[in-house]
Structure formats: structure tokens, C-alpha cells
Design goal:
alpha/beta, five-stranded parallel sheet, 16 helices, about 45% helix, Rossmann fold, about 15% strand, Four Helix Bundle (Hemerythrin (Met), subunit A)
Length: about 475
């Protein structure tokens, strides 16, 4: 297995320290709803984690939540609520989004406000070693002490100075020194420290959490490309200076940015589509297919056309998986589904090439449909499809219920049963998918009884509700009209 390491700028053989892969991914700052750019990062690292587990590794996955930050303080102040209330609200919102996208929870979700003691330990250690200095109630890191500062972003201190000319501060020894501990301002949340009340800087929390939960050297550290400098650069400087151990991270993995036009999607630019908005239009499988259809290091351009294509692809896969096998296999040779698995592994072993892996999933689905059409048993191949698409890529093959108008489906459901002179068989009017399945079965019974007019009535009613039926040799499948 080879992965691209941002630090070396090339693909390297993936060699974790042991059977357990130590993996850390930077989490969210919860001051508003998470957007599609966040979805890209967490879906990608969810798939990487799933694939490593599929390949036999144990994975210990840690992700932080920056629940105290300038942006949280400013937003809470503007809303007239506490920072705790704001952070809790949007952390819950983020976790709901991740669950809706079928992103597995990390083994440890660490919150900045709960890890202050470890941060103070690291900051004090850096001061004791001469790598940091207190000034004006804050503590700053001395970048000039680090000869290889800039090695991750492949820049030197002089070029950073030119690019970051606005960075300064009368308390700093050098303009590029960064804050480890921020002295408290009136009215802001603060914690006691040897240097007075204050709160942690952004960079120190990730070093403290990763050192606490994963040790001095991580196998994988992930995040968006926008975190390479200054966040991850500063993590390296302070972590290696504190422990004296190099490297802090063996493999740095950074995903590309979601773009709208030529600009990255971000809260600060205000050009974002939230995950909730995305899930209001498209299924979770569609969003995952959209994200995984591009290599993780490449930029991803958001467009309605791309999402519609992903939606159609998700529905095709779900229909394939729902196809029944013929009662008797008329094939004279096996469907070589294991060959798709081998090619899938080869693609994922090449720097987690999900675009190629996803393409193979669709190729396998096409082969399954062709085999089913020719009367061959497809059950083993369908289980292979599920393993690759669901267990590893995180798809669910579930119908996008959020796109079904449950209230309208319920009215259609009742109307059909009334017209047939029957008592509705299903009582839960909130479960649109179950009602559609039941009506499909009712229509099949009517067709078997050669009650064609009534069967057509059921089809027409479903069509009015936006449900398309497709009759196949193995049965009827349904999909949402696009």
C-alpha cells in the first residue's frame, strides 16, 4: 500500500508502527452548521479508516472539537448566548450530520475545553525548554529555534514573512511566533494558568490531544489542505520540540477543497452549502458518491449536475442490490466478482484512489445486472457489491426517504386502499418507504390475479407521487422520479 505524504511530496509505502494504526484528523469549530467541505474531509477519512480495517489493521481514530475559539466567542456574543450553549448546539448538529452521512464516530472525540490540563503541561514544557516564552499574559512559540520550520508547507521563514507581512504584535519576539496560550480579555471564558487566566491557542490543542491519546508519533494525521499552514506546520514544531521525538507524524494526508466556481467553500467566504441543505435535496449515498468520485487530493467542484449524476448512480446501485436471483440459475459459468475485488484493492492501495474504486463498483453492478438478465444466480456477487460499496465506501443502498413526501405518500396509500375496497395493511403513516413497498406488492398481487385495471391504477397513483416502477424478469423495482 502506498500513500502520498505531504511532508515528502511523494507516494511512500504505508508502514505503520504496529498492528494498530494511530490516526488523528482535525475536527470542527462548532459556531455554525457544517458544510459540504466538511463532509468531504470526514467522508474521505471515514473511508480510509474503513479500508484500513478491511485490510486487517486495527485503527485508533482520534478527532478533536475546537469548542472554544475567537469565532465561537464572537458568534455567541452577537447572539447573546454563552459560548458553551453555542458550541454544544453546533457540535450536536455536526454529529447529526455525520450520522446522516453514515460516517462512523471516531474512537475518541476530544473536546478542547476538557483537555486544558494536558495543554498546560505541553505549554509549560515548551517554556522550560526555551522553545516558548510568556509575554503580556500570553505564551508564544519561538519559531526561530526550529531550523526546519516550514518543512511541511515547503517554505522557509523568509518566504513566510513575505507572505504573512500583516502578522505582528508588540508582545512577540518575532512576527512569525505563534500563540500557545492567550491571555484573557474582559468577559471572555478563561482558565487559570501559571501565566494568568487565559485560554488555549488553536494549534496547541491538537498536539496535546494527539500526544495524550496516541503517543509521540502518529501513523496518519489528516485534514484539509487549508490546514497545512499554519496549523499543521505549527503542530509539528511544538510537538517535536516538546517530546524531542521525530517524526511527530509518519504520513501526512490532506484532502482537496470543495469549490464553488473558482473559490473554496468556506464559512468565512459565506459561499457554502450546508450538509443539511445537501441532504435536503440528495441522499447520503449521493453525497458520498459525489465526494468519492474524485481523488481525495484533488479539488472538488460543487454543481447541481454532478449531484444529480451521483443521485442517479446511487439509485442504480440500490436497484441492482435489490434485484432477486432467478429461481434456477441458467448460467453455465460463474460471475467473476472476485476479480472486481482484486482490482478494487489495487485501486485503494494506490493512495486510496476512491475514484477508480467507485468506478469498479459500478462495473460490478453492471455485470450483476447483465448476469441477472441472462438468468444467472447473482447472490454472491451482490454480497461482494455490498462489501465494497457499503462496508468500505460507506454507502447504504437505502432509498432516499427524505426526498419522499411522507404526508403525500400516506394520502396516496390510503386512497389506493379505499379504491380497492380494502383496509390499509400498514399503519405507520410516517414511514414513506414502507408504504411504497407495500403498494408495489399490492400491484404485483393484482397483476398475478390479472386485475389489470386496478394494477394500472396503483402504478398511476405512485407515478403521481413521483415513484417510477420498473418491471423486470425478477420482479418490480421502484425509484424516485428525477
Amino acid at each position: 500500500m502506498k500513500v502520498y505524504n505531504t511532508l515528502s511530496g511523494q507516494k511512500e509505502e504505508f508502514l505503520p508502527q504496529g498492528d494498530e494504526v494511530k490516526m488523528y484528523v482535525c475536527g470542527v469549530t462548532p459556531y455554525s452548521d457544517a458544510h459540504i467541505g466538511h463532509a468531504m474531509s470526514y467522508v474521505i477519512f471515514d473511508v480510509i479508516r474503513r479500508y484500513l480495517q478491511y485490510r486487517g489493521y486495527k485503527v485508533k481514530y482520534v478527532q478533536n472539537v475546537t469548542d472554544i475559539d475567537d469565532k465561537i466567542i464572537d458568534r455567541a456574543s452577537s447572539l447573546g448566548i454563552s459560548t458553551r450553549e453555542l458550541a454544544d448546539k453546533y457540535t450536536s448538529s455536526f454529529l447529526e450530520d455525520m450520522a446522516a452521512l453514515n460516517v462512523d464516530r471516531p474512537d475518541i472525540q476530544a473536546y478542547a475545553t476538557e483537555e486544558i490540563p494536558k495543554m498546560l503541561e505541553v505549554v509549560q514544557g515548551l517554556v522550560d525548554k526555551g522553545h516558548a516564552y510568556p509575554a503580556g499574559g500570553s505564551v508564544y512559540f519561538r519559531v526561530r529555534n526550529i531550523p526546519d520550520y516550514g518543512k511541511l508547507s515547503h517554505r522557509n521563514l523568509e518566504s513566510m514573512m513575505a507572505a504573512e507581512s500583516a502578522i505582528g504584535g508588540e508582545d512577540k519576539e518575532h512576527p512569525m511566533d505563534f500563540v500557545l496560550w492567550k491571555g484573557a480579555k474582559p468577559g471572555e471564558p478563561s482558565w487559570e494558568s501559571p501565566w494568568g487566566p487565559g485560554r488555549p491557542g488553536w494549534h496547541i490543542e491538537c498536539s496535546a490531544m494527539s500526544l495524550k491519546y496516541l503517543g509521540n508519533t502518529l501513523d496518519i494525521h489528516g485534514g484539509g489542505q487549508d490546514l497545512i499552514f499554519p496549523h499543521h506546520e505549527n503542530e509539528i514544531a511544538q510537538s517535536e520540540s516538546f517530546t524531542g521525538v521525530k517524526p511527530f507524524v509518519k504520513h501526512w494526508l490532506h484532502n482537496g477543497m470543495v469549490q464553488i466556481g473558482q473559490e473554496k467553500m468556506s464559512k468565512s467566504l459565506g459561499n457554502l452549502i450546508t450538509i443539511k441543505e445537501g441532504l435536503g435535496k440528495y441522499s447520503a449515498d449521493a453525497l458520498r458518491i459525489f465526494i468519492l468520485s474524485s481523488h481525495y487530493r484533488s479539488p472538488l467542484t460543487y454543481s447541481e449536475e454532478a449531484l444529480l449524476a451521483a443521485m442517479n448512480g446511487a439509485e442504480r446501485l440500490a436497484r441492482t442490490y435489490s434485484r432477486p436471483s432467478p429461481e434456477k440459475d441458467r448460467g453455465d459459468r460463474p460471475l467473476l466478482h472476485e476479480a472486481y475485488q482484486d482490482q478494487f484493492i489495487a485501486a485503494m492501495d494506490d493512495d486510496f484512489n476512491t475514484a477508480r474504486a467507485l468506478g469498479l463498483v459500478f462495473e460490478l453492478a453492471a455485470a450483476i445486472n447483465k448476469a441477472a438478465d441472462s438468468g444467472r444466480n447473482i447472490e454472491e456477487a451482490k454480497q461482494m457489491l455490498k462489501k465494497l460499496a457499503c462496508d468500505i465506501l460507506g454507502l447504504t443502498f437505502k432509498a432516499p426517504e427524505m426526498l419522499l413526501d411522507a404526508k403525500y405518500i400516506a394520502s396516496v396509500y390510503i386512497a389506493v386502499y379505499q379504491e380497492l375496497g380494502r383496509v390499509p395493511a400498514y399503519n405507520d403513516e410516517n414511514d414513506a418507504e414502507a408504504m411504497v413497498h407495500d403498494l408495489v406488492e399490492v400491484r404485483q398481487e393484482l397483476r398475478k390475479a390479472k386485475q389489470w385495471q386496478q394494477a394500472d391504477m396503483v402504478r398511476d397513483k405512485l407515478d403521481e407521487a413521483g415513484i417510477v416502477l420498473e418491471d423486470t424478469p425478477q420482479g418490480t423495482v421502484w425509484r424516485i422520479k428525477r
